[in-house]
Every structure is written in C-alpha cells, then in structure tokens.
C-alpha cells in the first residue's frame, strides 16, 4: 500500500508541476531534444512526465513564449508547420528558473526540519 501512495503522490506532484510550469517544461524539453514541432513536444512531455497536454493548452503557451523571445519557430514551407527551438535568451531564462526552484526547494526542506 505504501508504494501505491507514493506513486499517487508522485503523479499528483507531476501534474501540478506540469500545469504550473508548462513553459519551463517546454524549455527544458527543447534544451534536451533540440528543435521540435508542437506535436512532438506533446509526445515528449507525455513520455517524460506521463502527462497529456492538449493542443489547446500547448500552442498558446508556445506562442506566448515566442512573443517573449524565449523560443523561435523555424518555419517550413507551410505556415503552420515548423520546429520550435530555444533562443539564447530562453537558455538564460531556464537557468534562472532552475536556480530559483532549487533554492526554494532547499529552503522548504531546511524549514520543514524540526
């Protein structure tokens, strides 16, 4: 029963993390996999996190990140096709967020010890 509870908690945390930090998940996926289409991004997120991200959620986030200069779309002949890649600004953005998350988690762990 204990392992079932752990699995359930892990799944819950993954879902919350993905929903709250979808932009970071996208950036990390691009950093790891290189230029990737939106469809492939959905597949990679599912493979890595076990979370299904709907196109209606993913594509607005991709476009928002593109407007912020974090990613760029390398367009192919058709307007809708193309692969997204992380910009240099996006790489810096990822590093800042990972460092902040690491500090926050360390602080939470330190403060929770009695």
Provide structural commentary:
By secondary structure, the protein is mainly alpha-helical. Helices cover 71% and strands 9% of the residues. The protein has five helices and two strands; from the N terminus they run ααααββα. The protein has helices at residues 2-20, 22-33, 38-49, 55-67, 88-112, and strands at residues 71-75, 82-86. The protein has a two-stranded antiparallel sheet with strand order 1-2. The two termini are 27 Å apart. The mean pLDDT is 89.
Q: What does the overall shape look like?
A: globular
Roughly how much helix do the residues carry, as a percent range? Answer: over 70%
N-to-C span: 27 Å
* Count of discrete alpha- or pi-helical segments spanning 4 or more residues: 5
Strand order of the largest sheet: 1-2
The major beta sheet can be summarized as: 2 strands, antiparallel
Which regions are unreliable across 5 or more consecutive residues at pLDDT < 50? Answer: none
Q: How are the SSEs ordered, and which strands pair?
A:
Blueprint: H1 2-20, H2 22-33, H3 38-49, H4 55-67, E1 71-75, E2 82-86, H5 88-112
Antiparallel strand pairs: 1-2
Quick overview:
The chain is mainly alpha-helical. Helices cover 71% and strands 9% of the residues.
């Amino acid at each position: 029963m204990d392992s079932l509870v752990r699995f359930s908690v892990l799944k819950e945390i993954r879902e919350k993390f993905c929903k709250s930090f979808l932009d970071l998940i996208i950036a990390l996926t691009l950093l790891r996999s290189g230029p990737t289409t939106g469809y492939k991004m959905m597949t990679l997120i599912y493979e890595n996190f076990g979370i299904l991200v709907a196109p209606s959620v993913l594509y607005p986030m991709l476009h928002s990140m593109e407007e912020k200069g974090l990613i760029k779309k390398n367009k192919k002949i058709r307007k809708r096709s193309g692969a997204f890649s992380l910009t240099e600004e996006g790489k810096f953005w990822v590093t800042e967020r990972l460092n902040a998350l690491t500090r926050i988690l360390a602080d939470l762990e330190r403060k929770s010890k009695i």
